[in-house]
């Protein structure tokens, strides 16, 4: 009936507007039951459950065998880690798989089966689930004793497929691969040529004493290639050239030429190519998001114009204001935007809205989020007004910065004077006394600012919240110190009492004081601009950081499986191929190598935390040591080189390119904006490029709407 049709149109408009707000595609089923399921799926509760499930299944690697639940990662001192019994983590995995099965089933149903077979991500999602469940069954059949678990490597896919921005980034990387491959090929040619030169230049001679360079670095082709590859990362510089340089200074020309051509030219050329390819990436992405938003709003207009209460018009469609108000009551959106749209509707004198008017109303979604600071209190007393003027003036803040600087200088002086003293020889009286004085000043400054600005206005500034929180913590620590150790006096070094010694308490206070000195940043215009820009970038580039997590996670899990049993406790004997070798001694370099590269592999266990958290470009340098003592086979070079190429060469340069593009746009925007003391603008990535985006035309929107697989328009 007419009432049922109107309810359906209202619900369709609600969903389309919510799609526009979240930049989602509108190509999904639009019948009543599907709309209810769609809103339920994208509700905060369901999305929170899905995010929690992804977090849980990724975090399982920290407690699965080999477990990372130890305080120290040193293989010599840490006790045997707790390993969960068979079936515990597998039960958690099964629950996660069930959530993912529901997730992919709902997604597949909502977009329709025809669209499902065109969606490569959903097909890959199902394939990943099938492989993971199969591997889970195999694991249980072997009572969790199998060495290789394929499903652990596949877990990052669940994080990847849940983010549209990550998918767009991977698509852009794929389009950039040909250009990157050309530079990587040039790097390979560079390495190969200099490897040949090195083998000829440092060839073996009759005098064994003069062959240190050949013995250590250029004995054969694989060793020579590995040595120069590590030199390209500068990890073994200048160690690699010391033997040759000691023999003849002219040999340094070879290493200088290699480093200049490789590092200064080719590596920076790769950065330039990646930046050039990604220079317009975010702009294209935001342009696509804008089109989705405009399409969602236009789809809502079209379905609302089909309401039976709307008068038919042969030339143009209209939407009644009453119907739009009914829709806005049920739409989940930011209260600021909803109130602004409703105010505009109430100010509008007409009862019907055209497509242009309807679209213009929702341009409120594209505006900056503005935070207006509360007003200062109005005092009647002239004395209080003078107090408010004095302590609300910027000069009072500058005075506080000078005092904070004096506090830092005094701490530096004391630390320099006590640098060579034994703990028993230190006298904490002076440092305790000056800290007490400065903390009292900080407390007084905070109270006076609250008096001048009012509590609400004071807390509305992030710098004040930061300053006030640290001041309260410092005050609590100082009171606790006095309660346990008494007031400062000459020779103030009482015995250890409570959780922390006096020196630990003083150090903690000093660290917080040093951290509090960051309060000067808002008072330095360009430094504040840089810092706030970087903070906004951190918040807006979470998708790219997510892909970094995916890369780290995949390589960490792969490393655990590859290097299982590579390092054994001191004194044990192990066999590598047909070669017999004793375990290598744990001196400083090798111990550092274990923590950084193999993460404390102990008796067939490789720790996930160390492999995940300590990867750096220097891992290739430690690869040389592993190979020299026969701890791993030479094919392991592929793993380390692949990690270096993907993380340090490609992904770091990609992240730098994205950072530069965002930073330049944000810098230009803020430098041309007039500063307003009581207003803060909060911008997202989508809003950063708003001024350079092209609005989609009427024809483009209607053509896309007519291609909707589940929506039939009347015109």
TrEMBL record:
Key words of the record: Calcium, Calcium channel, Calcium transport, Endosome, Glycoprotein, Ion channel, Ion transport, Lysosome, Membrane, Repeat, Transmembrane, Transmembrane helix, Transport, Voltage-gated channel
GO CC terms, sorted: late endosome membrane; lysosomal membrane; monoatomic ion channel complex
Subcellular location: Late endosome membrane; Lysosome membrane
InterPro entries registered for this protein in UniProt: Ion_trans_dom, TPC2, Volt_channel_dom_sf
Main location: membrane
Membrane topology: Multi-pass membrane protein
Superkingdom in the source lineage: Eukaryota
GO biological process: calcium-mediated signaling; endocytosis involved in viral entry into host cell
Family membership: Belongs to the calcium channel alpha-1 subunit (TC 1.A.1.11) family. Two pore calcium channel subfamily.
Residue span, Ion transport domain: 55-278, 405-663
UniProt catalytic activity: Ca(2+)(in) = Ca(2+)(out); Na(+)(in) = Na(+)(out)
A Gene Ontology molecular function term of the record: voltage-gated channel activity
Transmembrane segments: 45-63, 92-110, 122-143, 180-202, 253-275, 395-417, 429-448, 469-488, 508-531, 543-563, 608-632, 638-660
Protein's name in the database: Two pore channel protein 2
UniProt entry tagged with the keyword Repeat: yes
């Amino acid at each position: 009936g007419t009432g049922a049709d109107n309810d359906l149109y209202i619900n369709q408009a609600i969903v389309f507007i919510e799609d526009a707000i979240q930049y989602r595609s509108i190509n999904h089923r639009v019948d009543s039951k599907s709309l209810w399921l769609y809103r339920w799926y994208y509700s905060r509760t369901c999305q929170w459950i899905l995010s929690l499930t992804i977090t849980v299944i990724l975090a399982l690697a920290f407690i699965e065998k080999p477990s990372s639940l130890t305080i120290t990662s040193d293989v010599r001192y840490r006790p045997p880690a707790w390993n969960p019994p068979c079936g515990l983590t597998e039960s958690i995995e099964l629950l996660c798989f069930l959530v993912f099965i529901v997730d992919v089933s709902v997604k597949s149903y909502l977009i329709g089966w025809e669209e499902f077979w065109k969606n490569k991500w959903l097909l890959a999602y199902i394939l990943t689930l099938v492989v993971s469940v199969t591997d889970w069954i195999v694991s249980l059949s072997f009572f969790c004793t199998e060495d290789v678990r394929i499903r652990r490597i596949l877990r990052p896919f669940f994080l990847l497929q849940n983010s549209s921005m990550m998918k767009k980034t991977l698509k852009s990387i794929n389009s950039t691969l040909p250009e990157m491959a050309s530079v990587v090929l040039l790097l390979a040619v560079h390495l190969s040529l200099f490897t040949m030169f090195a083998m000829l230049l440092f060839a073996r001679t009759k005098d064994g004493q003069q062959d240190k360079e050949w013995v250590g670095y250029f004995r054969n082709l694989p060793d020579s290639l590995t040595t120069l590859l590590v030199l390209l990362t500068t990890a073994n510089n200048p160690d690699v050239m010391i033997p040759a340089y000691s023999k003849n200074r002219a040999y340094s020309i070879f290493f200088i030429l290699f480093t200049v051509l490789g590092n200064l030219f080719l590596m920076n050329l790769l950065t330039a190519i990646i930046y050039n390819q990604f220079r317009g990436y975010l702009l294209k992405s935001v342009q696509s998001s804008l089109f989705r938003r405009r399409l969602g709003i236009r789809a809502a207009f079209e379905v609302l114009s089909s309401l039976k209460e709307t008068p038919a018009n042969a030339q143009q469609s209209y939407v009644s204001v009453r119907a739009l108000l009914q829709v806005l009551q049920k739409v989940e959106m930011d209260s600021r935007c909803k109130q602004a749209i409703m105010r505009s509707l109430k100010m509008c004198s007409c009862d019907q809205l055209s497509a242009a008017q309807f679209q213009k109303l929702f341009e409120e979604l594209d505006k900056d989020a503005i935070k207006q600071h509360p007003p200062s209190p109005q005092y009647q007393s002239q004395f209080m007004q003078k107090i408010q003027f004095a302590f609300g003036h910027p000069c009072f803040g500058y005075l506080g910065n000078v005092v904070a600087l004096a506090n830092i200088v005094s701490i530096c002086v004391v630390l320099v004077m006590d640098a060579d003293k034994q703990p028993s020889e230190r006298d904490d009286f002076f440092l305790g006394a000056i800290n007490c004085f400065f903390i009292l000043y900080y407390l007084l400054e905070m109270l006076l600012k609250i008096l001048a600005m009012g509590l609400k206005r004071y807390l509305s500034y992030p710098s004040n919240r930061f300053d006030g929180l640290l001041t309260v913590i410092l005050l609590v620590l100082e009171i606790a110190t006095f309660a346990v150790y008494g007031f400062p006096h000459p020779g103030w070094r009482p015995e250890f009492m409570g959780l922390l010694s006096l020196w630990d308490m003083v150090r903690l206070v000093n660290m917080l004081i040093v951290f509090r000195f960051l309060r000067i940043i808002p008072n330095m215009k360009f430094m504040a601009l840089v810092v706030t820009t970087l903070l906004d970038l951190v918040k807006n580039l979470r998708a790219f950081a997510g892909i970094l997590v995916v890369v780290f996670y995949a390589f960490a899990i792969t490393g655990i499986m590859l290097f299982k049993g590579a390092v054994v406790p001191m004194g044990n004997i192990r066999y590598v191929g047909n070669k017999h070798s004793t375990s290598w001694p744990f001196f400083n370099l090798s111990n550092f190598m274990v923590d950084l590269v193999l993460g404390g592999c102990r008796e067939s266990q490789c720790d996930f935390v160390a492999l995940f958290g300590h990867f750096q470009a220097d891992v290739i340098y430690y690869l040389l040591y592993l190979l020299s003592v026969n701890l791993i086979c030479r094919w392991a070079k592929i793993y380390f080189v692949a990690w270096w190429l993907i993380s340090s060469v490609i992904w770091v340069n990609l992240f730098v390119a994205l950072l530069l593009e965002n930073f330049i746009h944000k810098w230009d925007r803020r430098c041309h904006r007039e500063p307003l003391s009581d207003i803060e603008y909060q911008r997202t990535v989508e809003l950063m490029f708003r001024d350079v985006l092209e609005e989609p035309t009427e024809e483009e929107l209607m053509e896309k709407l007519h291609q909707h697989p589940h929506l039939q328009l009347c015109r």
